[in-house]
Design brief:
Helices cover 44% and strands 30% of the residues. By secondary structure, it is α+β, with helices and mostly antiparallel strands. The strands form two sheets. Strands 1-2-3-4 form a four-stranded antiparallel sheet. A hairpin with a 2-residue loop joins strand 3 and strand 4. The two termini are 36 Å apart.
């Protein structure tokens, strides 16, 4: 099993931190409201408890996405792990990787006219390709420079 960690952009990191902070604050405010209204206003207490629970769930999901975003090659499948969620791609469906140097992107082309951008650090492009190629030797690797 080989793993390649997501390389989030600085803007993505800022957004993940902002979302986590907003929902952490929401949990704190609503837990305070549960304590404040408990015993005197049941509907407000229940509403605050529900909002606190939902906010905690979104906070946990956001932290999980930030902490565990990666590609995992296991068996003949490429798993794109995104926190608690994942997608699974048969490596034999991948026929080409193209590195676009001008945009610093690595694109995976799949059968059925589909493609996806691999969100990993440039220094791991070769390792990623070799790991995929161990499963599917037919995968081609192309490079598009800024001049093309």
């Amino acid at each position: 099993m080989k793993k390649f960690v997501f390389r989030y952009s600085p803007l993505t990191w800022v957004l993940l931190i902002v979302v986590a902070a907003i929902f952490a604050a929401s949990v704190a405010v609503n837990v305070f409201d549960v304590i404040k209204f408990s015993g005197e206003n049941t509907p407000k207490t229940v509403f605050a408890a529900i909002v606190a629970t939902l906010s905690l769930a979104v906070f946990i999901l956001t932290v999980a996405v930030a902490a565990y975003g990666r590609y995992v090659i296991k068996g003949k499948y490429l798993y794109c792990r995104f926190g608690f969620f994942y997608s699974k791609t048969d490596i034999n469906d991948i026929f080409q990787l193209t590195e676009f140097r001008a945009q610093n992107k690595l694109v995976m082309y799949l059968k059925g006219e589909k493609y996806t951008v691999a969100v990993i650090s440039e220094k791991y492009y070769g390792d990623f390709y070799e790991a995929l190629r161990e499963i599917n030797t037919d995968i081609a690797y192309t490079v598009q420079s800024a001049n093309e």
